[in-house]
Each structure stands twice: as structure tokens, then as C-alpha cells.
Design a protein that fits this description.
GO biological process, one term: glutathione metabolic process
Pfam families: Hydant_A_C, Hydant_A_N, Hydantoinase_A
Keywords: Plasmid
Structural class: alpha+beta
Low-confidence stretches: 688-693
CATH topology of one domain: Dna Topoisomerase Vi A Subunit, Chain: A, domain 2
Largest sheet: 9 strands, mixed
Protein name: Hydantoin utilization protein A
Helix content: 25-40%
GO molecular function: 5-oxoprolinase (ATP-hydrolyzing) activity
Number of helices: 16
Amino acid sequence: MRYMVGVDVGGTFTDVTLVDSDKGSIKNHKVPSTPKDPSHAIMTGIEQILEMNSIPFNEVEYLAHGTTVATNALIERKGAKTALIVTKGFRDLLEIARQTRPHLYDLFKEKPETVIPGDLRFEVEERLYADGSVRTPININELRKVIEHLKEKEVTSIAVCFLFSFNNPIHEKVAVEEIKRLFPEVYVSASHQIVPEFREYPRISTTSLNAYLGPVMKTYMENFQNSVHSVGIPVDPYITQSNGGIISIQESVSSPVRTAVSGPAAGIVAASHLSELTDYRNLITFDMGGTSADFSLIENGEPKVSMEREVEGFPARIQMLDIYTYGAGGGSIAWIDAGGALKVGPESAGSTPGPAAYGRGGTLPTVTDANVVLGRLNPNGILGGRMDLDVEASKRVIQEHICDKTNLSLLEAASGILSIVNANMTRGVRLISVEKGHSPSDFALVSFGGGGGLHCGALAKALNIPHVIVPPSPGTFCSLGLLVTDIRRDYVRTELLEPGEDSLITIRQHFESMKVEGTQLLAKENVHPSKRSFSLDIDVRFVGQNYELPVPVQWEELTSDGVQHIISRFHKIHEKNYGYSDEEGKIEFVNYRVTAFGELPKAPLVKASQEDNCLVEAVSYRDVYFSEANNLGYYKTGIYNRSDLNAGNRVQGPAIIEQMDTTILILPSQSAVIDPYQNLIINTFGEVEKNEA
């Protein structure tokens, strides 16, 4: 037998999914995260799940994991000592940034400090014209002096970003060669390798971030790879990227900034795969863990992609899945502000000490503690009984920090905490849907993460979303996503061109050169030619616009007649995004993008052959307090084991469905049914059929 293993590292728990490639059976496991050394929890989780299922290490044929190492290094400012070499006259560009402020109406809000301080930013005489032709050759002697100075400074990483190098990287290549010759042990990141497209500040920011994170990721990846091999796993692990694809460790070391949101991206990939198996093509993903909640939108089976996102306040000009994160997790701390108002988050209790209910020393009230007080979590323990809950501790911290500072009763305080965190998350869904021209009622909500099941019903009700999909193992859904994705690499070129027959030769040349690069990478990753594919996009805008819109194109459309189809498609996309489009406006092509895909084996998800269409009796009952119901108060609530439910089984709310990795709450007005893929489909507004029996 051969097995696939996916590992997702979260702020509170590390999730592991094990798939039998032959039988399609899936096993899940969770262990507490180890923020100081994430690889420790990863290896512990892998070793435990293999041991529990009596599987030898050498039978693992595929291993992938999502990592938070890059993000954590940036948050904690624990990256490498990094220097920056730029064109003379542009030393302070990284500091000047853009005129936009972090918060428009907060005059005192400061921009984050740059990852490269002023004393480590150096200029070199060189200059290109905007078209890439050389105006001033690079001053080699000055460059060598800078490199020798950096050796004395004992930097461990260098970023190189020259003006207009995206059109002609000749000077950056010279600089990289000299750095490697004179300072071979240093990590080097050049902008023409990381983000070869225009807009100077995002390019220099992305390159600097990549250099800052490079040595940290290199050390982590090498240690992780050695740990994997030392226990007898015969394969090299893959790493998830922010675009939802995976890549080998070697490739991720050269571009660590591409892994900035790799963990949340895996959940979006899993949801997209889910849409292929079901009739739900339009999805809003809701991933609630212990620290935060992530939201994204999938339209017609395709996740939305952003060409530039901020990572901890810094622009990163790389393709990322369009994910919005809010400080709203199970560990989010409830507090009273100076005006006496109840607030929740963004600070989290994390995994250490965690919520008071976990009995690890937590002394502040959290969302999890509120759920415990209202009876929504099993007082006898969670994680299949492996973790005890201290109900009295939850009551005590809410009483001390909320009730004693307000006129709220214990039930009112706990209900208020959940109402506030749900309202915060509702705004997150509106941001990715309503504010982008989408109605939530046209989508289904996919709920996953350890905390999502307790809040998805309330969110769907508030947003008028008709259905909620809860996967079979929502608490480990991201780690499953690692087993249903493909190798993916994005390439880009910039050249401002008018759409027309004269520009087609240049455009085809750009696409052809990028396809060659993609083919070489896929060959290096041992992807068979029959498993390779490419997608093409052109970033288009009206002349004078500040930003452009990506327009998908086909190779066959790169003809004088086909260009009109591209322009027509741009007008439709522009109207959808902005509410109008000027059919007579002058248009220009800006960026040319190729995405290379390498298809990998997927974890098989087995469809049930028969359906047992009946209402299921609860295994027990518990009084649960519902403030979301039309008549708030305690309800006699049926308790179900997820493992007892089969395809076609139906459940009437109020109900609680328990499983190892999460707890799912069905409100009194709602119902649920198990589909052939063992997904729990919650009908937000009821619609339960009567038991035919």
C-alpha cells in the first residue's frame, strides 16, 4: 500500500491528513502547534498518525505541507540581516513607499518599519531608460566596494533592485554574479527573478521581503527535509504557495515570499476541488481556526486571485489567492474598552496558554469559553475526548473580565461575545462578496477550520446564504487541500502595448518565453509532458487608468481577429467590477502572464453508492442556549456523532454534531442532510422533509 500525507500548520493546532491511495480511506489527526519550532509539531503529527494506523514510514509516497514560517518571521521581525542595493538616487524608495496611508482617517497611524534599515541600503551607479536600453553602464568598481562593505557588516542576505530591470535585467545579472563571486555564502534575491513587472515600489518591496525571508526559510526547509528523511520517509516534501499550488522545497527556498499565506490557500484549493464534485459551483469559504478567520470567494469553481496583496503592511507583487483574514478565531479574547463597550479580538490566546477552558493557564475570556458556557461544546471534552474542558474556568473568566465590569449576566455576556464575533465575520464575508458585486445569496458557504462549525449557521442566516457545506473533516480540511492540488508557477512580463496586429508578435514572444520557463520548471519537478498545462492572461486597462484588470486569453486569440474578443471580454470584466465600461475608450495591454500547471495524483474522495434517506435519532440530548433563535433561551438539543451519519441521513435542528476535529451547531430553524461525499449540507432556512417511514 502507498499513502499520501498532508500537514497544515495553524496558530493553535497542526492538522495532519493521511490518505490510503489504493482504498481512498482518509484519517485525520491534530496536535498542538509549536510556534517556536513548527517542524516539531509537524513531525510529531506525522509520526503519531502513522503509528496509530500501523503504517511504516517508507510507505509514504507523497508529503506536502503548508507553512507559516515566512509569515511568522515577518510578524515577529525575525528575518535575516538584509541589505539592499539600488540604482543611485533611489536609496530611500523603500522608506518613501506610496502616498497612501495605512488608515485614511487616522493621522497618527504609522507605517510599519521597513525590513531593511537605512544603514543597510546602498546605491550603485547605473541607469536604464524606460524601454530597457542602457543610459549609464553599471559601475563595477563601486559595486565591488559595496559588496566588500556588506561582508564587513556581516549581512546574511542581499536584495538587488535596479530601475527598469524588468525590461532589461543585464545590470542586475552583473550585480548577482559579482555578489556570488565575492560573497558566495550570502543569500541573493534579484527583482528580475522575483517580480519582473513594472511599478517600482511594489517590486522593491517584494524583492526585499523575499531576501529578508530567504535564509530563514532555507534553514527551516533543510531541517524539515532532513527530519523527514531521518525517520525513513523516502520522498521530498512539497510546500504550498500563496497561489494555491505546490512546489518543491528547492524552488520554495528561492522564492519564500510566495509561501506567505500558504496555509489558508490550501483550504481554498480543497473547497475548489469540492465544487468539482458537487453541484455547488459558487462558494464562499469560511475558515475559522483558533487565531483568525479567513474568507475567500470561488466563482464557477475558480478561486479569485489577487495580483498584489499586503503582507504585514508591505505590498507583495505576486499572485495570491484572494483571501481576507480577520482576527476572529476560537481563541480571540473578549474585552471591555475604555468606553465600556464589549469587544472581541483581534488579540488571541493562541495555543499557549489558549482559552481558559483548555486548562493550560489561560486567564482571559475567549470565543471558545463563550461556546463552553452556552453548552455548545461537550463539557466532557473535545478532540474525541483527548482534551478535557474546564467549564468552571470559562464561567470564571467571563464573570471576572466581562460581567463584573458591566451589567451583563453570564448568559448575556457569553451570547454577546458570540454576537460580536459573528458580526465581525459577517463584515468579512460582505467585503469579498457584496463589495465586489456579488450577492451572498447566490453562493453556498463552505465552513471549515476547528471553529467554523459553531458559527457557520449564524453567519449564513445573517447573510441570507441558503446552504452551508461542512466537509467530512472540516478541522483538517486545509491539510486535505494539500493532497488535491497541483504544481503551479506564475510568470509575468511587462510591456505597454496598444492592442493591434503590430503588437501581436511581441505578445506571442512574451508568452512563448514564459512557456519555455514553465516547461523547464515542470521538467525539473519530474512532471510528465502529458500532465503539463498552461493558462494565459493579459492585464488590460484604459489608457490613463492607474490599475489594470486580468483578462484570460487563449493562444488562438492572438490574431488580428482574436484581439477583438479579448477587448470585448475586458469591457465585460470592467463593467462587472466598476459598473460601467467605455466602449470607445482607448485600451492598452500592460502585463502578460503565464501560469504553468503540473498535474499530480489526487487524494481519492469516494462517493457513496447508496443513500439511507431518513431522519436520524440523537444519541443524547443537552440543554443549549441559543441567542440566534427567534425565541432566545435554552433548547433541548440533540447530540449526534458525525461518524454515525451516512449519505442521505437528515438531522433537524436544534442539533449539535460532534467529531474529533470540530463541533457543528445547527440552529433551531435549520436542518441538515449528508450528501454522497459525506458532506453535511445545512439548509439555512429549514426545508426538512418528513420521515417517510
